[in-house]
Write a structure and sequence with these properties.
Blueprint lengths: L20 H10 L4 E4 L2 E4 L5 H17 L5 E4 L4 E4 L4 E3 L3 E5 L11 E2 L4 E6 L4 H5 L1 H6 L7 E6 L5 E6 L5 E6 L5 E4 L4 E4 H4 L5 H4 L1
Parallel strand pairs: 4-7, 8-9
Antiparallel strand pairs: 1-2, 3-6, 4-5, 6-8, 9-10, 10-11, 12-13
């Protein structure tokens, strides 16, 4: 089956038709690339630059070690997340799920219950990740923390739900800082997060 795919957030793109969720899932199953789905539209997901990839690997490696023996597990960007209330299917850079993973119709593909989502920001996606995507992520009932890691500067924005039920922001801007995740009680040094990037030297 052939679909007309709109390039994500690119000017001059043309939406050819609306797609059902089943059509999207069928398309994605047969595709060699990853695509987001939202409100009947399918969007291609572009690749990332080297610093983005280094930071993502550093994070997943540290989280795997720090969460060992705990009830929470980190997943990389191959894990698709589905938000039924707003129809978004997407692939966060990293997600953390505590306890048993819940999936759409028990399909073992589309996770429903992340506790933490981490996005590594790139220049062309940071506006989306900070704005529209964060709005969509907040529809996830299980989500407690949303972490944005800049790939062009030493800067992490860590959002968590406070005791009043509101999203609260804490920022980290020094390489000697430690990022603390409430979920799993994990502390990650920014030096480890930015290791092997130029930012680890200049930050």
């Amino acid at each position: 089956m052939v679909y007309g795919i709109r390039i994500k957030r690119t000017s001059g793109s043309i939406r050819q038709k609306k797609f059902t969720i089943d059509e999207y899932l069928e398309f994605e199953h047969d595709s060699d690339e990853k695509h987001e789905y939202y409100m009947g539209e399918i969007f291609t997901m572009s690749g990332a630059k080297v610093p983005h990839n280094i930071i993502t690997v550093n994070l997943i490696t540290e989280l795997k070690q720090k969460l060992k023996g705990k009830s929470c597990r980190p997943y990389n960007s191959d894990q698709r997340i589905y938000i039924p209330s707003n129809t978004l299917f997407t692939y966060p850079d990293i997600s953390i799920i505590c306890g048993n993973m819940e999936t759409k119709d028990n399909d073992d593909w589309n996770a429903l219950n992340p506790s933490v989502i981490i996005e590594v920001l790139s220049p062309d996606t940071k506006g989306y990740d900070r704005g529209e995507k964060f709005t969509l992520y907040r529809d996830i009932v299980s989500l407690k923390e949303y972490i944005l890691v800049d790939s062009t500067a030493v800067h992490i924005e860590a959002y968590h739900i406070n005791a009043a039920g509101n999203w609260e922001l804490k920022e980290y801007k020094k390489i000697k800082d430690n990022l603390t995740l409430i979920t799993g009680q994990v502390s990650l040094s920014l030096a480890d997060i930015y290791e092997d990037t130029k930012l680890a030297i200049t930050g």
